[in-house]
């Protein structure tokens, strides 16, 4: 269980430090997470998958914040089934945020490729986390089946 908590924290950290190009500079995902909340109250939710890279950043930040909050809450839950479910939901939301950042014409704009390359540590950590959760669930099912016999 401690290993799952550690990988969960690494997953959140790696996602927070995905580098995003914006305007004439770069920023990290954590910065856009912070900016997306006031933007939500000021402008509402606006989304267009075909919009420019910079126009998607606030929605991506909002999805990212929600995913990270769900992952952090899963650290404090007691029930293993609910903990596993909330972890999977949080990871799916973080994957969606990475997808929105990297879905575009890679040949036209290097920002999509750059963001994808800096998200590789997050993707590896999240896949490892999901494999540990599934392995843990499989072991519990196996122990239940052995105890019933």
Low-pLDDT parts are none
- Rounded mean pLDDT score: 82
CA radius of gyration is 17 Å
For the secondary structure, the number of strands is: 2
Q: Assign a percent range to the helix content.
A: over 70%
Percent of sequence in beta strands: 5-15%
Give the biggest beta sheet: 2 strands, antiparallel
Please state the overall shape, judged from the principal axes of the Cα atoms: globular
Helix count? Answer: 5
First CA to last CA: what distance?
A: 26 Å
H/E element sequence = HEEHHHH
How many domains is the backbone divided into? 1
* Structural class by SSE content: mainly alpha
Strand order of the largest sheet: 1-2
In short:
The protein has 149 residues and is mostly helical. The chain is built from 5 helices and 2 strands.
Describe the structure.
The chain has 149 residues and is mostly helical. The protein has one domain. Helix content is 74%, strand content 5%. The chain is built from five helices and two strands. The protein has a two-stranded antiparallel ribbon. A hairpin with a 2-residue loop joins strand 1 and strand 2. It starts with a helix and ends with a helix.
